[in-house]
Description:
Blueprint: E1 15-16, H1 27-32, H2 38-44, H3 50-75, E2 79-81, E3 87-89, E4 98-99, H4 101-108
Parallel strand pairs: 1-4
Antiparallel strand pairs: 2-3
Helix pairs in contact: 3-4
Amino acid sequence: MHLVTPELDEGPPVTYCTFPIRGKPFDKYWEEIKRQSVEEIKKRQGENNSLFKLIRKQGLAREFPLIISTIKAFSQGKIKITADKKVVDAEGKPIKGYNLTDEINELVKGAIL
């Protein structure tokens, strides 16, 4: 999630989570596109590509938990936005986003394979 600015999706990150796109269940889809360029895939399949759809599904499964965990982190004082619109941790140190990966992945574990 990012701090909203007048420019769409350009604000600094506030919270984030990551997930691997290699390993199970992704590998079989990587194998399918092994010798194709990104341009080829875009032209022939676009967003209908199986790998793209799986990555999107995994990301969407984390979206609502990320929103809730972000609100929780703010309410617990783990992160704050300063008057000059900087993202800081509980000690007031500037951060480039608060990492919620472990928490989010635990919440969605087993729900999206």
